[in-house]
Automatic annotation (TrEMBL):
It comes from Nitrosospira briensis. The keyword Signal applies. Residues 242-333 form the Peptidase M20 dimerisation domain. InterPro entries: Amidohydrolase (IPR017439), Bact_exopeptidase_dim_dom (IPR036264), Peptidase_M20 (IPR002933), Peptidase_M20_dimer (IPR011650). Residues 1-31 form the signal peptide. It comes from the Bacteria. This is Amidohydrolase.
Amino acid sequence: MKKTSFAEDVCFKMQALVVALLILVTSTAGAQEASLEAQIRERSAAVEKQLIAWRRDIHQHPELGDQERRTSRLVAEHLKRLGVDVQTGVGRTGVVGILKGAKPGPVVGLRADMDALPVTEPEGLPFASKATAVYHGKEVSVMHACGHDAHTAMLMATAEILAGMKEQLPGTVMFIFQPAEEGSSVVMPGEGKSWGAKLMLEEGLFKNVKPDAVFAVHVMPGPSGEISWRTGATTASGDMLQISVHGRQGHGGMPWNTIDPIVTSAQVLTGLQTVVSRRANLALSPAVVTIGAIKGGTGPNVIPDRVDMSGTIRAYDESVREQVGQDVKLSAENIAESAGAKAEVSVIPIYATTINDAALAAKMEPIIRKAADGKVAVARLIGASEDFSYLAQEAPGLYLFLGVTPEDQDPLKVAPNHSPHFFVDERALVVGTRTMALMTAAFLTGQVMDVAK
């Protein structure tokens, strides 16, 4: 039998020690992960009743974009009670909270939008909105018809969970309560003024503390408690379209003495349908051109001198977005010219495409599956646009959808977001809170590797 040398014996023992340490580290990390998950589940369950109460309170007191003063106060007071550093008035009415863990580490941003819509809510819910507000000079009814009440409440609950665990967490959490995702009620597009996420960034949102990753959860029709997402382009770019057709006014009984902007506008509207069907490269990206408002004329026997149309352009690829905008302008101007009229066309960029970071999504997938108890799906393209896109341009972003359709209803048949009949199954909200908290803890504790590497 061959005897081993002293050096060989030392080498063998060192190798055994390394293996033992690796086993110990792995088991310790696994135990830490299990412990954090158990705590987050327990804390999520404990805060669920308050989460629903917050959501109902915010739902009953909705506020339009850049008017979210009551909601901001509610959020700021809650964060201060948790010991979170709070900054208010960011982007007009936004609130930012900074929670520092026990030691240095990564930074995670969590975003919730707070604003409601100029929609009249029907009676039925005991906490239905009866609120009114001024929207660009006009008094309107206000409703949380897109679920931002749920988003705000879920992030308030997430803050409570993570603040209670800060001694176990390294790094920093940035809670971003954003105003005016649906647009400002006091600033018009095209005036050169920003709102929402873009304004918050312009005012230095990420100047002193910049996230290594930023997350958001949005409620949508879908099986209650299901989390869905996709990589790459996730929400569409959104551009505002304004077209003014100028003719020559005259008597409705003598149209030969006029240049009729109403008939010309109808021809323009019809012609715009071919921009997508025949000009847009749909192999690269879906595209939508919608005219949502037409205004012109004062009486049945008067041909007016002008008709105004407004609408939206949506796409998921920047080259398609630019081409559609150019083709809309070319089509409208040339059709109007052929009728002896003139079309003035403005395409105003509103929101960029939201891009979900593929590496971040891949690393977060097992965490999300745990949070949703395996109830996950690949999200479909939906045509909506989001200013979370601006945050995701500054840091790797992941934008998730949370299904809130009751189990006895078909998600494909229920009222969609922005409908006065949009309904949120509140039993799903704890899943959204748990998901945000678990993703944050996993990222901060190193269970997810640095996505920038």
